[in-house]
Amino acid sequence: MPAPAPTPAAPGPQSVDRALDLLDAVAEAAGPVTAKALARRLGCGLSTVYALLGSLTARGHLTRSAAGYTLGYRLPVLHRAFQRQMRIDDGLHEVLLRVRRAAGAEAYFSTYRDGEIAVLDGTTAIHDTDAVFSVGQETTAHATAHGKVLLSALPRAARHQYLAARGMRRLTPRTITSPDRFDLELRRVRRDGFAVEIEEAQPGMACVAVPVRASAGASGGARSRPVTAISAALPLGEFTRRRESLTEAVRRAAVEAEGLTVHGV
Questions:
Q1: pLDDT at 222 over 80
Q2: Can you tell me the distance from the alpha carbon of 14 to that of 19, in angstroms, rounded to the nearest whole number?
Q3: What is the pLDDT of residues 3-19, one digit of tens each?
Q4: Confidence check: pLDDT of 136 > 80
Q5: Per-residue DSSP letters for the chain?
């Protein structure tokens, strides 16, 4: 009898890491990116990059064009699966859409949970590269209105641990980079019940955020409940003219979201 064909070796951790690095590199690019450019960025051989690109393209995570590689059609499917598994229902998304219709501003739902801050839903298109924020892990929470709301709800030690691990990188001349000054800013957020950032994350843009209160029927203890917020962003000129109406629209949305978000994250 002929010897059985050998079982293909499972990809090693390094191959998996490189494939994910490759996917991240394509996602961060402004447009289609070539295999040679990806090889230079990742610091590995062109043949390795081509092999990984072939696998990612075959599975739909990437798409190849004459200009290079872009994210594939599989990504929106994964995004919808992410929302389903996080149990972000249509009711919450509709709340965000109402903010956009009422205030003409893009709206977002974000959370702090298990030591991480993330934007879980928003009204901007998933492929919009000009969006102020995008769905995914937040890495510059100190410079955002929703980050201020979420961090202001944490115990001081947890907040300082979060900021120490991620730093307070200066994104614009107005970004707060001093922990002491940031503590004063969060004190104001707790007093006023909302947060504002003006050109701290991106020049020419401003944002307001309001915490979403846990409903009275929420299950689990206070420590187990995630902290959540709704925010909205506008170009600075429009924000200056419509600040009060925008803040009120976000406040109403946060009230509407109570109960919708308790089991959503």
A1: no
A2: 9
A3: 554 444 445 567 888 88
A4: no
A5: -PPPPPPPPPPPHHHHHHHHHHHHHHHHSSS-B-HHHHHHHHTS-HHHHHHHHHHHHHTTSEEEETTEEEE-THHHHHHHHHHHHTT--HHHHHHHHHHHHHHSSEEEEEEEETTEEEEEEESS-TT-TT-SS-SEE-S-GGGSHHHHHHHHTS-HHHHHHHHHHH-----STT----HHHHHHHHHHHHHHT-EEEESSSSTTEEEEEEEEPPPTT--S-GGGSPEEEEEEEEEHHHHHHHHHHHHHHHHHHHHHHTTTSTTT-
pTM: 0.70
Tokens 């839903």 sit on residue: 121
